[in-house]
């Protein structure tokens, strides 16, 4: 273990250093001026300048007048299997340093640092003073000071109770790329994860993981000098219901703050830090089945949620060899519970299961779509889920959450645990970012938490910028959690007649590429039954076979907002996928060491399928059209 310390002398600040196992990352922790501070370097270059740590609680201000009194160190070496994230087997190694801080002669708080070869993570542990068994965390002082010249790739947080039916914030705003530091979004900060470029030195991704009902979801607040602070939810979230602070039993732990960094984007794309730091919160005796599915709503909207159309989509899913059909909003009034049972039985005969949409709502926004008033009510929710189990429903999609307050995090957890009792997988929409939930909750599948495919139906402008947005998500949102995007449309138009409505400007191969680039173990693609006749055979055949669970991911090339090329492995089969939003054809010679020299591989490009040979140097040359894609498979 590479660790060193500068011992405190009378009148001087204590300062301790912990390195990553490979020595490239160095974290220095100190009690400068009575404040808990830290700094992060990569290859001896500052990536996070000297930044503040600490908590303000109702039993004490643990951000001032602190003494770093003790440090404990150990090495962490763990392995785990998780088939619903980007990498099915993970070997995690890190150096841990626990920094204990005293105030007024009492040890009040510790900060636990974990430093791996890609990531820095830390969390707070609040001690229990004599006679105190709980506290209120009023504020985090956690900050991240970016070096001068850093540029940003950030998603602004929305003003609460705005957007459709007052459902914001729901992590559904557009990222700004190559922006300067020193701003604060639309005055409300930014949603995690947050990507920064430290000039030619490399990249930094900030996020958090391990958030459950014991804490709130946080955001990042920008300051004019390039410092960023962790911010708690806004009072107006959830229609003003619930505290913006955190109630904590003592001793208590906060979620982890994570910093992923590297000279290239490879560490960002390939990180598993969101899951390395958490453990399952409960076990399950049910083996959940992931896979591909269809849904009518993205093309046909509300009117498509009727019995006959859903039966047609079940037939379509069966023809594609898909696992499920998602029946979206208003099924309770337009189909009814008895006929849902009939559809479930019909699907069972075809080998196709059902997901059912629900409104999360109680009193936190005005979204009218039903079923509503069930998922927020513990009695009705349990009864409903028992009915779903009896009917053989595979899972639920719960939409329109109210914000990031602690009580809303508790609702997510309650839905997940009740669903697990009834063998139901859970997808969240109109929701917060998942924070390690794939490992924490065995029946969690995915979350939206992104400006997803529905906007392509609603807006030609969204269609025109589809590729630009698509090149961002693999570097930011999708790096830290499964992303339920609902894309890969092969219709020319977002309408059931395929002749009117918003027009797709991306190529068919783009649709195939995003099926690989956008990771989620359950994928409800925006395909339609007419695609069996009007889409290219090679495209339909690919969409029948593309996996939704992966064993490995590798960064190949790219830049957020311009282009992305990645490789994913399922079993022994590799899929290399790329999309281009540069405004012109993108010429690249790709180094692909996963393929043998001289091997003939399949290449989907320029809306056709061809065979090419891997060169002796294990490279393949491509020319990806603007708004287009490429997929290479063995």
Automatic annotation (TrEMBL):
Cited InterPro entries: Aldolase_TIM (IPR013785), GH (IPR017853), GH-type_carb-bd (IPR014718), GH97_C (IPR029483), GH97_catalytic (IPR019563), GH97_N (IPR029486), Glycosyl_hydrolase_97 (IPR052720)
Pfam families: GH97_C, GH97_N, Glyco_hydro_97
Cofactors demanded by this protein: Ca(2+)
Record domain Glycosyl-hydrolase 97 catalytic: where: 292-450
One function term, GO molecular function aspect: hydrolase activity
Assembly, per entry: Monomer.
Name this polypeptide is given: Glycoside hydrolase family 97 protein
Species this protein is from: Xylanibacter muris
């Amino acid at each position: 273990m590479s660790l060193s310390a500068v011992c405190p002398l009378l009148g001087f600040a204590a300062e301790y250093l912990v390195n990553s196992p490979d020595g490239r990352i160095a974290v220095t922790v100190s009690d400068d001026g009575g404040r808990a501070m830290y700094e992060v370097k990569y290859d001896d270059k500052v990536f996070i300048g000297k930044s503040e740590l600490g908590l303000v609680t109702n039993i004490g201000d643990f951000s001032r007048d602190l003494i770093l009194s003790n440090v404990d160190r150990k090495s962490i070496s763990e392995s785990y299997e998780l088939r619903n994230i980007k990498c099915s087997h993970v070997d995690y190694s890190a150096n841990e340093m626990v920094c204990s801080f005293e105030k007024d002669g009492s040890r009040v708080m510790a900060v636990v640092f974990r430093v791996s070869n890609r990531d820095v993570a830390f969390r707070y542990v609040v001690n229990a003073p004599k006679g105190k068994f709980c506290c209120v965390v009023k504020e985090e002082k956690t900050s991240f000071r970016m070096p001068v010249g850093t540029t940003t790739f950030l998603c602004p947080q929305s003003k609460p109770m705005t957007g459709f039916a007052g459902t914001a914030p729901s992590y559904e705003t557009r990222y700004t790329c190559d922006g300067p530091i020193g701003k604060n979004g639309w005055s409300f900060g930014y949603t995690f994860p947050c990507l920064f470029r430290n000039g030619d030195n490399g990249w930094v991704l900030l996020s958090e993981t391990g958030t459950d009902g014991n804490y709130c979801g946080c955001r990042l607040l920008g300051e004019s000098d390039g410092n960023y602070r962790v911010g708690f939810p806004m009072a107006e979230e959830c229609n003003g219901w619930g505290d913006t602070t955190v109630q904590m039993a003592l001793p208590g732990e906060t979620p982890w703050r994570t910093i992923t960094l590297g000279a290239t984007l490879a560490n960002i794309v390939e990180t598993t830090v969101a899951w390395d730091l958490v453990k399952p919160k409960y076990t399950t005796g049910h083996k959940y089945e992931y896979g591909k599915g269809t849904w009518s709503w993205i093309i046909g909207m509300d009117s498509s949620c009727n019995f006959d159309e859903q039966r047609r989509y079940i037939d379509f899913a069966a023809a594609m060899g898909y696992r499920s059909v998602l029946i979206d909003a208003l099924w309770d009034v337009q189909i009814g519970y008895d006929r849902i049972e009939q559809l479930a039985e019909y699907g069972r005969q075809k080998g196709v299961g059902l997901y059912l949409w629900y409104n999360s709502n109680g009193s936190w926004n005005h979204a009218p779509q039903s079923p509503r008033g069930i998922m927020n009510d513990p009695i009705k929710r349990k009864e409903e889920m028992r009915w779903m189990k009896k009917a053989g429903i595979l899972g639920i999609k719960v939409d329109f959450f109210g914000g990031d307050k602690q009580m809303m995090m508790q609702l997510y957890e309650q839905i997940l645990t009740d669903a697990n009792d009834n063998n139901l997988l859970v997808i969240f929409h109109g929701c917060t970012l998942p924070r390690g939930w794939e490992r924490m909750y065995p029946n969690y599948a995915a979350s939206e938490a992104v400006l997803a495919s529905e906007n392509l139906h609603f807006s030609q402008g969204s269609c025109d910028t589809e590729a630009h947005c698509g090149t961002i998500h693999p570097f930011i949102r999708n790096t830290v959690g499964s992303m339920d995007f609902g894309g890969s449309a092969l219709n020319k138009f977002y309408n059931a007649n395929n002749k009117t409505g918003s027009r797709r400007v991306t190529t068919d191969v783009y649709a195939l590429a995003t099926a690989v680039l956008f990771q989620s173990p359950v994928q409800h693609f925006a395909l339609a039954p007419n695609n069996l006749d009007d889409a290219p055979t090679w495209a339909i055949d690919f969409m029948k076979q593309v996996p939704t669970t992966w064993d490995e991911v590798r960064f190949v090339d790219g830049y957020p907002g311009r282009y992305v090329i990645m490789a994913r492995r399922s079993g022994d089969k590799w899929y290399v996928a790329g999309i281009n939003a540069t405004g012109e054809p993108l010429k690249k010679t790709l180094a692909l060491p996963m393929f043998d020299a001289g091997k003939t591989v399949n290449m989907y490009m320029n809306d056709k399928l061809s065979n090419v040979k891997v060169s002796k140097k294990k490279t393949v040359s491509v020319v990806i059209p603007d708004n287009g894609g490429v997929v290479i498979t063995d």
